[in-house]
């Protein structure tokens, strides 16, 4: 029963992030929603590679041959690095928009309206 719990929590976190991105007008809150989606994806990847009673593949003298999947761990680390860079870039864009228009909401900035 608890085997699927990390996947459910990852989906809930991702849905909360998507809702924040769709229904919030403040750019900082939209970026926070994007970070939540990223956290949900990272949790999904880690849960996908987890194996019960397995060890990390960095131990060479391990008594057991069961090891967790290293590929998804590497993908998660890559996703974390890319997510930090993307978040920093989006926050810098938000600062530039705030300096130019005096507001960080999409409703008050005319050029961001679709």
From TrEMBL:
<dbReference type="InterPro" id="IPR050601">
    <property type="entry name" value="CPA3_antiporter_subunitC"/>
</dbReference>
<feature type="transmembrane region" description="Helical">
    <location>
        <begin position="72"/>
        <end position="98"/>
    </location>
</feature>
<keyword id="KW-1003">Cell membrane</keyword>
<keyword id="KW-1133">Transmembrane helix</keyword>
<keyword id="KW-0472">Membrane</keyword>
<dbReference type="InterPro" id="IPR039428">
    <property type="entry name" value="NUOK/Mnh_C1-like"/>
</dbReference>
<keyword id="KW-0812">Transmembrane</keyword>
<protein>
    <submittedName>
        <fullName>Cation:proton antiporter</fullName>
    </submittedName>
</protein>
<dbReference type="GO" id="GO:0005886">
    <property type="term" value="C:plasma membrane"/>
</dbReference>
<dbReference type="Pfam" id="PF00420">
    <property type="entry name" value="Oxidored_q2"/>
</dbReference>
<feature type="transmembrane region" description="Helical">
    <location>
        <begin position="30"/>
        <end position="52"/>
    </location>
</feature>
<feature type="transmembrane region" description="Helical">
    <location>
        <begin position="6"/>
        <end position="23"/>
    </location>
</feature>
